[in-house]
């Protein structure tokens, strides 16, 4: 790189801190296991060898919210499950992001009735919505990549 | 009450279920919560533990209750079928089949032979896909992670075949009352034959990895025993009951959709533990391949859907030629078809057990009452009886072996 | 399915417990009065060999009040390959029924669901509380006078007005 030539053979690279922080956050984002219904099966398919998600840094799903950054809400959220969802979201440490996977999590989906929360953004703030019923694993990966792009654009001024 | 306060169920409400030692503090009450890697879905188990041994196990379901039955009452029969896929989401075509059989029984629709054979092929492919997910998650819970990756790789091939025929990987709604939505494409037969050649070697690979593996046998042999009488009294059906020696399979004993034309065996074991249920399901996978081969060889030519225009929409090409076709098309797509008054109970053999639909109609275009008799509902009840006296680690193996899907349970 | 045997069973039930028989699409349905259901279940299990009871459910016929509910029991005999359905008509808004948990243990959760969804109490049940809905939910969802809970869908033409009244998380 040109920078190295200017600094001689010291082997020093300079970059903005913001970019480094965002880069490290995207490259090793650990999702929390929050598969509820049918979308969870497509999430498991996305995790397995055919549509590998571990090439994006998500090698395994963390069962504990204390150790994860990303919550992929995969499946329909019922009124009985909603307080559990909120409690788990509160237990995740900052920085955290939420991907709402599938139609049921984004807007209630096929089910418009007494038992289903019409969109998980009534409960937690969502960063990326992925449409589909269920979304193909490629669609989920597209959503994850969109989230990475969003995180790469984050500025310190917004949350520091 | 705010949303978070509603979470805390007080001990008073559960006092009658736990033993007295819990109230004194001798035993520990542990919440194996709705979000857990080993409860296959959102199942909450309240465990009363004496050290590591389970004294009481109280399941709490309802975290995925979608109100499908009530929602189906508000939609026409055709629209309601879309919701049937989402019940037991690992057996989507089986749910469609149960619903279509119920509607066909009520309306006395005929189903052509070709449609019946294709239905059998897809139902067995779906059984294979569901058993692959069962094997993957059970092995994953017992820390055999490579089996998980192998099974999902095989499942991708089955999902590709489903996408070929119906356009969707999982929620296909491919079976319609009267037959199929559209005929299978030309490449279907070759894909299925390739799969039939490929799969037996893979099942052998899983057996080589697990069946004689001393670690696996140590973890599953003798765990979760259930005798034949207990299985019948507690409402176990399907492979869960066949592991205990109940020799009953709806495909052979109350056949539907042409299953009586095919020659297959029903594997049963007698010990009734987790290992027996594992062996039963592995053998069922091989028998499914056998059925698919026979159905594919026998696949007759002919129409793929009934001609009864009162219930089946006419093909688009007919609309430009016949006035009657236009009238039928209009009625079917605006109001829906009227189903005669009455109630039927139709059952199929899902990979989990006996899946039944009680369909009651009042003569109108919308179902009056649809009740889904789902196998997982009865099987989770079994947990509170089977799990007593085992360790928590054994509980994970038991949950895997009874093969529950929470969408099936909570509807 | 051996139709003759099934007709004998149905005739036997009607003779001992009252009610009527109806056959629809090759399926036998026996209407049994509400106070006789436990005795009928014992007779089916012990004398006629129906080992399994797969399902208990109910149908709500509101606004008709007599009968308002029909509770439907499915019985299955594995050894003789027969199925039979029992229907029990119930009146009023808060009916009660004898519990079958002593006879078929898997009726435990099925009757809890009946209570949760319809409000039909099973007397003698060891643990009657809600199973599918949250434990403090009010109302019985599958009754016909309970609303579906349909919420207006947010399209572009009503985007802003629904946005204002949509609940949002606090942060």
In summary, what is this structure?
The complex is a heterotrimer of chains A (160), B (411) and C (171). With 160 residues, chain A is an alpha/beta fold. Chain A has 7 helices and 4 strands.
Notes on the protein architecture:
The complex is a heterotrimer of chains A (160), B (411) and C (171). Chain A is built from seven helices and four strands; from the N terminus they run H-H-E-H-E-H-E-H-E-H-H. Chain A is α/β, with parallel strands linked by helices and 160 residues long. A four-stranded parallel β-sheet of chain A has the order 1-2-3-4. In chain A, strand 3 (97-101), helix 5 and strand 4 form a beta-alpha-beta unit. The radius of gyration of chain A is 18 Å and the shape is elongated. With 411 residues, chain B is mostly helical. Helices cover 26% and strands 25% of the residues of chain C. Chain C contains four helices and seven strands. In chain C, helix 1 packs antiparallel against helix 2 (37-46). Chains in contact: A-B, A-C, B-C. Chain B binds chain C through residues 1, 6, 9, 13, 16-17, 61-62, 65, 67, 69-71, 74, 105-106, 108, 232-235, 237, 246, 248, 253-254, 342-345, 354, 356, 358, 360, 368-369, 371, 373, 377-378, 380-381, 410-411, and chain C through 1, 24-25, 27, 29, 51-55, 57, 59-60, 72, 74, 78, 81, 83, 85, 104-106, 108-110, 113, 126-127, 129-136, 141-142, 146, 148-150.
Could you tell me the CATH topology label of chain C: Beta Polymerase, domain 2
What class do helices, strands and sheet pairing of chain A give? alpha/beta
Helix-residue proportion of chain C = 25-40%
Give helix and strand order of chain A, one letter per element, not per position: HHEHEHEHEHH
Strand content of chain C: 25-35%
User: What form of chain C results from the Cα inertia axes?
Assistant: elongated
The largest β sheet of chain C comes out as: 5 strands, mixed
Strand order of the largest sheet of chain C: 1-2-5-4-3
β-sheet strand percentage of chain A: 5-15%
Oligomer: heterotrimer
Protein structure class of chain C: alpha/beta
The first-level CATH class name of chain C: Alpha Beta
Write down the Rg of chain A.
Answer: 18 Å
Note the total helix count of chain C.
4
